Amino acid sequence: MKNILFLCTGNSARSILAEAYMNAKGAPHWRAYSAGSKPTGAPNPYALRTLSDYGMPAVSPRSKSWDEFAAPEAPIMDVIVTVCDSAAAETCPVWPAQEGRLPKRLHWSFADPAAVEGDDETKRAAFEKTFGEIRLRIEAFLEGSNA
Fold first, then answer.
1. I need a surface site. Which of 1, 114, 123, 141 has the fewest CB within 10 A?
2. Annotated catalytic residue: which of 92, 111, 116, 142?
């Protein structure tokens, strides 16, 4: 099984959505995790609601720091994906290598649905749109990885 880590700044929306979808669609070949450079402390309720609407409970219903995944006891990552532009521009921790091989680094830019203002319907639509884009990107990734 390969490990993949989705990174965002707050680890409240995009990375949570990506983690849950990859765990649902990538199993048993992939195990997904998510983290943030400045975690908010909790997943966005709209992210959890979106996952629930698709029958996918969040595997890790907490917002966590990416430092957890740079620790010696952390799972070794095969792939690390930044899902927001600000996290991609930050200096990431040094990730543990597997047999001298560093994890593959990818950047997938998605609009931040948590930044959308408006009524409940507007916010739900923003999360739905971003989740749709994440699903397409992960499905393409899985097809290309022969998972």
1. 1
2. 92
